[in-house]
Amino acid sequence: MKKGKIIKGIAGFYYVHDGHEKVYECKAKGIFRNRGMKPLVGDDAAFEVLSEEEGLGNISEILPRKNSLVRPASANVDQALVIFAVKEPDPNLNLLDRFLVMMETEEIPCHVCFNKADLDGPKGRKLTALYEKAGYPSHLVSTYTGEGTLEIRNLLLGKTTVLAGPSGVGKSSLMNLLHPEAGMETGRVSEKIGRGRHTTRHTELFFLEKDTFLLDTPGFSSLDLFGLPCEKLRFYYPELFKLEGECRFQGCIHGKEPDCAVKKALEEDKISRERYENYLLLYEELKSKKHYGR
After folding, report:
1. What are phi and psi of 32, to 5 degrees?
2. pTM for this structure?
3. What end-to-end distance do the CA atoms of the chain give, in Å?
4. Tens digits of per-residue pLDDT, 120-147?
């Protein structure tokens, strides 16, 4: 019996990396179907080798998960690196904030990365400052010039990191820099629609070095918060949660209530107006879904 990590799952086959050099093509035993359990990319698994020469095996046990994500479907993630472009395409900060909220609900630490610094450095520095202010480690990089990529490589060491972001932001280009052997196709941004083609079609975990894995995921253009209650949204904005209990009214949702500590912090420029306005938009969206029973 060997142990390894599932790095890819396609059409009922699971590819398990043994932590050294070898990847085994495995089937999952029927016991998982009977239990209603599906192996996930990132799962640590025990497997029996059927053929060492052909690299074939059977997964016999999924080891206990530290955590699991619905999107991207994965397990045992240590941190997330969410990547957006400074421009081409312009960053959709509402989409970025949705992703950060989703990671907060799973208690997964998140780093924010803005690529294409070579296209507009001042704008990039403004964006990183905005998210640093919110409490997220933020990085400005250029896969074209190599700026900031050594810093990214260092923060990955010894961890399993999920790399996520919309299409066209240079996610695959960053992946190629970090792990050239991945041989990933890079998509050029369409000038007509301002978006990149989907170059990653399934979730895959890449072994970089000992105990260091990078999970590449398909690009996304929208993100549902999966039924998060609107009244709990404030707990997943770190800069708002920090002020919890300082408002006049208990359970203040930081909207129209008087004597609100968050609105006071906003007036004093201690929190970002962009983030606060996105919070209100998301709150209303979640409230609407609750009202209509969605």
Report:
1. -70, -40
2. 0.84
3. 45
4. 999 999 999 999 999 999 999 999 999 9
